Amino acid sequence: MRSIIRQNANQPVLPDFRNLGTILRILIAVNAGAAIYAFARDGSPAATFAELTLATTIVEPYLFLVLAVLWMASPTLARLSFATGASIVALVATIVGVVLFATFNLLGPQPPATLLRWLVWALFAVGGLTFYFHLRARALSPAITEARLSALQARIRPHFLFNSINAVLSLVRSEPKRAELALQDMADLFRVLMRDNRDLAPLAAEVELCRQYLELEQLRLGDRLLVEWNVKSMPVDALVPPLVLQPLLENAVYHGIEPSSAPGTVSINLFLTRGEVHAILKNPYRADGGRHHAGNKMALNNIRERLALHFDAEASLESRITRDSYEVHIRMPYRTADPDAAPDHPRAAHGASRNHKNNGTNNRRIAVRARRPSVHVVTEVQHV
Amino acid sequence: MSEPPLRILLVDDEAPARRRLRDLLDDCATALPLVVIGEAQQGREALELLQSAPADLVLTDIHMPDMDGIELARHLLKLAHPPVVIFTTAFHEHAVQAFEVNAIDYLMKPIRVQRLLGALQKVPRLKPVGAERLSQLPATARRFLSVTERSRVVLVPIEDVVYLKAELKYITIRTREREYLLEESLTRLEHEFGARFLRVHRNCLVAREHIRGFERRVGNDGDAHWEVLLNGVAETLPVSRRQQFVVRDIGREPVNGATA
């Protein structure tokens, strides 16, 4: 499965038929269309309802069959040009229509429309939806999407960098070796913060970044900051938006650890289950912390928006407050950079080649593909 | 005759920050006689230290757990010889603008030695910033009330306060254990602590979390009025006629152990 962010949106592209968002949009659009059609044929509520019931008996099986075929054909379709792909979709719609009509005739019930009329409507729907997905892809085109992602990226404010500089300054005279290590960590963090962070990156890299960040914070906060990692079943190769966890940890430290002189634990739990990556981050909740929570909201919204740009409806971010802990739960589809998939096709490669820009091998194209299981990342921080 | 050295106390919740300040003060010591009388991790500890070893200057971080630097400065004013306070902070946040507007000294971290030395040299000519100007700074409500008793400053945690009652010149602070006298304005306290206290009478604020319930009583004159029942304190407080509505209002919100 591709990232929903298009690379070549100036050329029309077919949507990804395995994307939950795509499927939902098709279902809603066609059913809404059927409802409007039923209403238009006879304005009275009773007749509309009868017409609609009749129409859905054939629309739903038809729709599910077409979607099932397209779901199976999705990887193949992704490799074809737009014109061929669109023709195949139209062909699928026609063949499934004919087959379904034949079955209905065989089973007895009179279909609510003639085959010809049915096919005209079906092809009209295919055309309309293809156009809609093209427009949508353009709205999410590289220029616009990247501008939005850059803007979101810029809003991440690394306050901790100032804290870290101060902490390192305090080490320079007494513990030059530790100061050296800390500066190296800072260099890595800066590199990640400053680089182009619009593409998905491996979860392992994000975790490494988080470790470096927390080590810097520990320099400053000492024993007050306890960290609990639970990453045994973490899918290291899962691709996630860069800086999806680090800002949350920054919040956890700011809101959960700094306001108290007692030690507190930040816990990070990453695991893969049923094809989804989960991240649960927990930190102690201080009701009387007196810290304004606007900054926290901003970070959450920022990450939520980036998740939506990358994964559409397949990712979510939820936060909740329990009695003494604050918890953020992120759910993302499990995607990996698969070097075997369709190396030369622009669409298959979309979203992938740039993932490896940092390796300096821009010509090595890699398809981003969803595996059946997805990875959930859950981050929690607990009050100890 | 040389001047006595400047006596300095460092307050910061982060050990590296204190160490860095010490290093910098060592550098300044060649240009200006000074002595660091101690370090504290938080405001309460700082106040304790200063009661036994007075200082001329307190260098304190603004953001600290439990008691922040601004609150510390307010409590320090109650000492017999209040020290000058210079704040330190890592961020140039909008809050810092308030320091500039009110001409209150602060040092931005990372602190430069020249800047620190300049600030130290001014100290002998400075007077502690008064409560009035400190209250202009954006601050969260204090965690403690401070009262002076036999020339010592005593901190009363705000969550221990059962009620505050204005009497002539003073305010009586009632905790479960005892009473303290405080010289502040009840209106200001009500404003500062907001929803924590409930005004039941022109002269009385009661901590919501300590209210056990209300009781209808008929006085000697035959008039009925409400009395506040308190957790852990036997006495009751009358609700004035004007504030009767609080009895009705509080019945609608969850209050710990209230049996209205």
Q: What does the model show?
A:
The complex is a heterodimer of chains A (384) and B (260). Chain A is of the alpha+beta class. Helices cover 54% and strands 16% of the residues of chain A. Chain A folds into 2 domains: 20-140, no CATH class; 154-382, Heat Shock Protein 90, CATH 3.30.565.10. Chain A has helices at residues 20-41, 45-79, 82-107, 115-139, 142-154, 159-172, 176-194, 203-221, 246-257, 294-311, 346-349; strands at residues 201-202, 225-230, 239-240, 264-273, 275-284, 316-321, 325-333, 335-338, 367-370, 374-382. In chain A, the strands form 3 sheets. In chain A, strands 2, 4, 5, 6, 7 and 10 form a 6-stranded mixed beta sheet that branches. Chain A has a two-stranded antiparallel sheet with strand order 1-3. Chain A has a two-stranded antiparallel ribbon with strand order 8-9. In chain A, a hairpin with a 3-residue loop joins strand 6 (316-321) and strand 7 (325-333). In chain A, helix 3 (82-107) runs antiparallel to helix 4 (115-139), helix 7 (176-194) packs across helix 8 (203-221) and helix 8 runs parallel beside helix 9. The relative contact order of chain A is 0.12. Mean pLDDT of chain A is 77; it is low at 1-9 and 340-384. Chain B has helices spanning 15-29, 43-52, 69-76, 94-101, 113-122, 131-134, 186-193, 245-250; strands at residues 6-11, 34-40, 57-61, 84-89, 106-108, 144-149, 152-157, 163-167, 170-174, 179-182, 197-201, 204-207, 211-218, 224-230, 237-238. Mean pLDDT of chain B is 87; it is low at 255-260. In chain B, helix 1 packs across helix 5. The relative contact order of chain B is 0.09. With 260 residues, chain B is of the alpha/beta class. Chain B has 2 domains: 6-134, Response regulator (Rossmann fold, 3-Layer(aba) Sandwich); 144-250, Beta Barrel (OB fold (Dihydrolipoamide Acetyltransferase, E2P)). In chain B, helix 3 (69-76) links the parallel strand 3 (57-61) and strand 4 (84-89). Helix content of chain B is 27%, strand content 30%. Chain A binds chain B through residues 159, 162-163, 165-167, 169-171, 173-174, 219-222, 258-261, 290, and chain B through 13-17, 19-20, 23, 41-42, 63, 65-66, 90-91, 109-110, 140-141.
